[in-house]
Amino acid sequence: MSLFKKKAIIFSALLATLSLSACNSQTVEQKNTTGSDAAAGGTKILIATQSPLSGSQSAIGDSIKTGAEYALNLQKEEFKQLGFDLQLTPQDDQADPKIGVSNAEMLAANPDVLGVVGHFNTGVAIPSSVKYESAKLVMVSPANSGVKLTEEGKKTVHRICARDDAQGPKGAKYAKEKLGVKTVFLIHDKTAYGQGLVDEVKAQFEKDGVQVLGYEGVTQGEKDYNFVVNTVISKNPDMLYFGGIYPEAGIIVKQAREKGFKGLFMGGDGIDSSDLIKIAGPAAEGIYFTSLAGDVKQTDDGKKWAEEYQKAMGKKAETYSVYAYDSMNIILNGVKEAIKANGGKKPTREQVLDLVHQTKDFKGKFVNVTFDDKGDNVFADVFVYQYTTDSTKFLGKIE
Known about the structure:
Order of helices and strands: HEHEHEHEEHEHEHEHEHEHHHEEEE
Low-confidence stretches: 1-41
Structural class: alpha/beta
Strand content: 15-25%
């Protein structure tokens, strides 16, 4: 055998040895990483939020995410003392049912996720809740008001706010009794939330003898609603009532005022956002809206909370920030109770679900919570606000 061939064989053997060594090293590294992840997975607890974090409804979606995040951050150390790494996993559902369902499937597949705060849109929450139900993953909503959500018999679904069959009638009665409305034109955005709310409003107006001069649907995301605004102007109602979200409301009221509409404008909680003022400009002044959340700043304790919130999160608390905060705390309370009942070990989703579902007389920052069998809060109320030139004015609870 030539010297060249001998060197070639030795070199090949050396390469094989190095390759095997590297492979073994990689395998050990993978085993160590996997073992480390497994250990971390045993102590990690994830709570998700689902709300629109991009797109036209992101202002409210972000307030929900940030309110929940603030509550979670305040409890991180307590969970650390219990031996758990508490983390937030915020999901952007983009106010789109398909994306909400896709996110829900992903959350359901991750065993570390023990609860969900959300959604904002009822039309997203209903199909997403199918995935939560199959995974026994508890959901607590700060904002979903659609009646159907808790009428489908899903144990996983809960909300701390009022339903549209309370919000709609109370808003209509306030308009008639407090604002003197005798004629109204109704517009909705064709969504489960918007049309559902307007149907409740319509039924109450008709019951109380208020004349409904029109009932029209518009499509979300359009930039020009003059086709329906022109009809409103021709009917000249005392009030234009809109069931939908603030981006469309801002455009409609702006175009109506530009065409000389002098009547009142009212909507539901979906038009409650400081971004409406940016969209409508001066036309926003005087708009009435019902809300499922009260004003936390009405008390000294609430003012202090709002100041601390802004300092910690770098942004002002919106109306739903505090309800997202309370929703998160309800879930975390259920998780802690489940840990205790499980001997200090990480609980199952079903254990967390059972304890959240049994929530009674929970004292939130603004709202008290007791869930009935359907997952509705027996203490939920409806409130009314009015837009000023640069903010909103709290008018009180609607009795």
